[in-house]
Amino acid sequence: MTTTRTTDRPVRVVGLVALLAGILMIGAGAATWATVSSQLAAQDITVSEDASFLAGDTVDGPFSAYAQAQVIDRHALEATGGQTYAQLEQDDPLRDVAMNASFLRASLFTSVVAYGVSALVMGLGAVVGLVGWSLRRLAAPAAPARTVDATTARGELTTAA
User: What is 11-61 written as a DSSP string?
Assistant: First the structure.
């Protein structure tokens, strides 16, 4: 007969909850990553050829979104003579160029942040899941001790020799 300490059950329950939460977090992070990727890809944006990296790549991930946002900033500053939206006079027609560039960059940076958050959630989900699994293993009932009859054990040893 095996006996379990009454303190093991709550630890196993907490371990199970953590394990399930970790799995849910990994799933939610992966779903977010996939959604952002598909939404970016649906826009059919290509990183500009004069980008410092990933030129010609489809914008469908965090690095390509960042690369395109950098190019948009550079092009807008070239068009406005190096001035930002706030630095241009209110009646300056280039203010619309700066404003549109700012909106586009903000959208692309929002996707970069979404990728970062989803990666963080997946990573934390893995950690939480491992903690849950560890708690369940540590609180698992011990295997029942086997009792061996001394005469049988001696007989098996002599037969095996």
Answer: HHHHHHHHHHHHHHHHHHHHHHHHHHHHHHHHTT-B--TT-SSSTT-BS-S
